[in-house]
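User: quick one - fold this with NAI bound?
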Amino acid sequence: DMYKIAVIPGDGIGKEVMEATLHVLESSNVDFEYSFADAGDEYAEKTGIPLSEETVNLVKQSQACLFGAAGETAADVIVKLRKELDLYVNLRPVKSYPGTKYLFEGLDFVIVRENTEGLYSGLEEYTQDGATATRVITKAASERICKFAFEYAEKTARSKVTAVHKANVLKKTDGVFKDSFYKVAENFSHIETDDRYVDATAMFFITQPQMFDVVVTTNLYGDILSDEGAGLVGGLGLIPSANIGETNGLFEPVHGSAPDIAGKGLANPSAMILSAVLMLEYLDEYDEARRLENALLKVLDEGKVVTKDLGGESSTMEMAEEVRSKLEAL
Ligand code: NAI
Ligand code: MG
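Assistant: Sure. Structure tokens for the protein plus NAI:
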């Protein structure tokens, strides 16, 4: 298969980790046809806007998009792409890789966050006394995110999906979410289900994170728990994310353009490489996703050819070269 991929390197280390990742992907057994586009701060300096309509259309016409990082304009760029492409899923793995600084060994779960409504619906207004935000939870959006979570569990051979909510206090909004979860669960009777309160979940992430497999939740809870999950496995240079819709997916590291280290070859390419792993999963190329992840795992575990943030002395491209040679040997 030949996949059409839009590539937006962006600003700062976004360009460096993208170059590194595309270099590794050259040794993949899957073929990609790339279309490159600029977006972000540098693009805005030249044109006055951080993201053009042509680029939005290019991403729409592609099967998936690899995004590096933008600088100050990141929110505009990503928010616009999420809206235009209706990327309703935000997916973040929490995995502890040998050779890296994690808090628990053997962690391997994913957080599936609803990305379009909830408390981030954009309905905020001042009142006489202060301000009010409206939290919108619809059955349609709740069912679609829960369905995604179950299907993802099925495809990636995971056995349990946990809904996270606070339906004891937010009886109506989180009640709709919880009911939607159990309605969808009926179609996946072979997958174990449970549900937990968000406050208790925040505690269990720290005390017993091994209990989680797939966690599905609403927008704000997912935002907070995702960063808590990142803290469990440590290091911005290691954490990928996926934004997924019905017809498109955008894959990006969680880190930004890191102006403090940009242009020096110091950036850890792992988060971008792992974003490509998520893209391969999205394209249903599971064998290839595991191969790429395992190649990176070997390099991290050996710890010899790694970047400074991982305790090594290698450059971004040296580390990428090492991942590529491991990939070729697998
Ligand atoms: P940042 O993630 O760029 O950097 C935070 C710290 O982590 C820095 O010390 C940086 O050197 C380090 N770091 C990040 N990624 C690394 C990697 N791959 N390897 C080694 N070290 C790494 O976040 P910061 O400093 O808050 O923001 C810098 C710029 O990035 C801002 O303009 C911000 O708006 C933008 N940003 C963009 C995002 C995006 O494009 N999705 C996300 C977050 C921030
Ligand atoms: Mg966040």
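One thing worth noting: The two ends are 20 Å apart (CA to CA).
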